[in-house]
Structure formats: C-alpha cells, structure tokens
Amino acid sequence: MCEDTRSFGRHSLTRQFSTVMIALVAGTVILCWILNTIFLGRFYMWNKSEILSASYKKVDTAAQAGSLDSEEFAIEFERLCANGNLTMIIINADYMIVHSSVSDNKTMLSHFMDLLFSSAQGDMDPIASGDGYVIQKQRDRRMESDYLVMWGTLSDGKLIMARTALESIHESSSLTNRFLFMIGSIAIVIGAILAGVVTRRITNPILELAELSRRMSGLDFEAKYTLSRKHKNEIDFLGERMNEMSGKLEQTISELKKANNELLLDNEQKTRIDEMRKEFLSNVSHELKTPLALIQGYAEGLSECINDDAESREFYCEVIMDEADKMNQMVKKLLTLNHLESGSDTLEMERFDLTELINGVIHASDILIRQSGITVCFDASQSMYVWADEFKIEEVITNFLSNAIHYAMYEKRIEIFYTRKEDCVRVSVFNTGRQIPEEELEKVWIKFYKVDKARTREYGGSGIGLSIVRAIMDSLHRKCGVFNRENGVEFWMELDTKNEEIVA
Hints:
Layout: H1 13-65, H2 71-83, E1 87-91, E2 97-100, H3 105-121, E3 126-130, E4 133-140, E5 145-153, E6 159-165, H4 167-217, H5 234-303, H6 310-342, E7 349-353, H7 354-364, H8 366-372, E8 375-378, E9 385-389, H9 390-407, E10 413-420, E11 424-432, H10 453-459, H11 465-475, E12 480-485, E13 488-496
Parallel strand pairs: 8-10
Antiparallel strand pairs: 1-2, 1-6, 3-4, 4-5, 5-6, 7-9, 10-11, 11-13, 12-13
Helix pairs in contact: 1-4, 4-5, 5-6, 6-11, 7-9, 9-11
C-alpha cells in the first residue's frame, strides 16, 4: 500500500478517533468525579432523611396501635435499626427507656438531651420535618463526627430519637473518586488501544480503496478490492462497486481504443485510397499521353499531306492504329481490373485440365516465342485437373507467359511446371534473366508499377497485367507470388485440386 495512517499526521482517522475516544472516557470520568464530589453527599443525606422519616412513620403507626410493647414490634424495631444503620431510642414522658438499639442508654439519653437543648436555643436548623418529628444535622464534638438526627413525639406522647453517622459518606466519596481515577486511567488506555484497532480495521480497507482508485487512474484495471470477511459491511459494498466500475471502465476504454483504432485505420485507408486515386490518374494520364501524342502527330501529318506517297501514308495509318489498339487494350484491362476489384465480376467455377489450358496459351504465343528466340519447357503429357474459373486462369497464365517472354534474357529459357501439395497444385512460370530487386518484389502487383520502364515501353506493356493476376487470385481466394532464383525470376500461383465446391 502506498501510504499508511502515519502519513496523514494529526488528520488521520486513527488519531482523530483515538483522541475522541480518550476525550470521551476522560470526560466521563471527570464528570463522574465532579458529580460524586458535589452531589453524592447531598444525595446521601436525602436518602438517610427518607430512611429516618420512614422509620418514624412505622414507629408512630405502632404507637397509634398501642403495640410498642409487643414482641412483634421489638423485632420490627431491630430490623429498622439494622437495615437503616440507625441508632434509635424511644422514651416515655418520665424519661424511662421503652426501646433502645444501644447498650449505653445513658450516653444515648445524654445526646438526646443535648439535642433538645440545642434545638430550644435555636442553634440547629432543621433539614427536614414532618408531623411530630424534625431531622437535623448534629456535630458530635467528642467523637468529632457528624450525624443526621431525627427526633420527635409519637402519637401516644412518647419521645423518639434516631441518628445515623454521616462520616462514612466522606470516606465513600473519597474512595469512589480514587476508584474512578484508577478505572478511568485503565479505561483510557484500553480505549486508546481499542480505538487504534477499530480504526485500523476501518482505515486499512479505505486505504486499499484509495490505492485501487490510484491504480485505476493509471489505467491499471488488474487491481481489485479483496473481501477478507465473511460478513460484508459498507466499505466492502463500496469495494465491490469499485470492482464493478473498474471492469466497466476497462471495457469502455477497450471499446474506445478499438473505435479509435478503427477510425485511424479508416483515415489511413481514406488517405491511401486518395493517394491511389491520384497515382492512378497520374499513371493513366502518363500512359495515354504518349499514344495520344503519336496519334495526333501522325494524324496531323496525314491531314497536311507531308508525304504524298502511298507507303508513307500507310506507315502513318499503321502507327495510328497501333497506338489506338494499345490504348484500347489498356482501357479493357482497366475495366477488367475494376470489375475484379469491385467484386462485380461473376466467377464460373468448374473443373478443367490445366495442362490443356497452358498448352493452348503456349501455342497462341508461338509466333512471339519464335521471334524472340526463346525455348519454352513444359511437360504436356500429364493432365492436371483443377477447380477454378477457366477463363480467368487462362488470363493469369497469359500474363505470366507474356511477362516471361518480354523479360527473358541470357539463355532465353522459360520453364512451366507443377509442384503438387496436399489439396492444391502450384503452377510456376520461370524465365532466365535479370532478377527483380528484393525491395521491389511486392511492388510488381501494384497498378502501373514497372521495374524497368524503358523495357516495358519497348514491348508496349502498361503495368496492369500483374495487378489483374493478383485481383483474379484474390477473387478465387488463392495465393500467388514471385521470388528470385539464381539465374532468373519465378512467378507462381496455387489452384485447388480437391473435388469439392469452392466458395467465391
């Protein structure tokens, strides 16, 4: 992970949560200490006052019923003193003790008399009072202790006095404060540790999500949020949504890249087509310019009767017809090539003897072969049946053979032969002569491309024949090619020999 909570300093969630936890625990402890110090004594006195009041009412009820001397009341009297932690004495009008919870009745009676005397002098303010009784706070100077004292007159005229010590409340308050301090210190330490642990469980997934978003911003969509718990929480839910978003982004970006690539290819193709169009127009203009100039020149010569003899006029006419025929042939080839490249030309697939076809093309070119002094080697004794469009294959063979005748040099030998393969046959046409530069081997299929422009012009070539060959083979979904051999150049094509239908 690229960062941890320490890198955020005081702004980290761990530190903030720990601070809040510690402050909450410490505040609770301090608040309890303040409440304990200020209000515990008051609450204790109020509670003791209620106990004294309740004790008076129970004793007065027994006095009204005349059962103070009964055994049942004696038990109730002991229960009241024990449960309320009270010292209680009941005396009659003659100051004779009726009930007492202490063995030193004389001392208790003395305290009672002091209480009555102090009350008569107005030295003590009552804390609470009721019908027949008063509750006051008394200081025992001998014991240096404070007491809460209740005294009064019962319904039957007897006097009652009860008291409870207040000194324990001060000790309890001090002890409680010390206990709170100890517990508070432990709680603060435990709280800080728990806060660290809890916030780590929260911040670690958050940091993992932050790292995930950072990698996603860098287009790294291999990063995924890992769920390590059985029960998912809100952060796990967010992580799953981020994983889904990562997948969606990856798919969207992939589609955008694909569309962008297709757009680039379309632009490149458009540029290439535009360049090809310009090149095509330039080549056509160049190829037509020479024959048109010759036709125009010789036609003007005829019209101006530069030479009046019949032989000159015949020569002029032959030149005009020859150049017109070249233009006508080039236009036909361009139309043929256009039909093939546009896919509008219909294929007539049939099974025929390729050997017979090649033999026919050789015989058709026999005059040109003999005029050029070329030897053609071809084994016509073996039939070779193939599946293709016979008319178009004848055009391919004618172009290969014509190209070989015009470029044959040195030994002036042309070889036509087969190379059998598993489901097809390769037909090769080889001629001795100069090799084609390696960097130009693939360019010979381009329209109007000429390796040797002077020699092409010499025999009237237009540079379209091999383009037609490539277009025909592409329409048949078969391969063709060219490569240099040691003493010449070999053109080849492959045709199907299996007895099955070929889809055009």
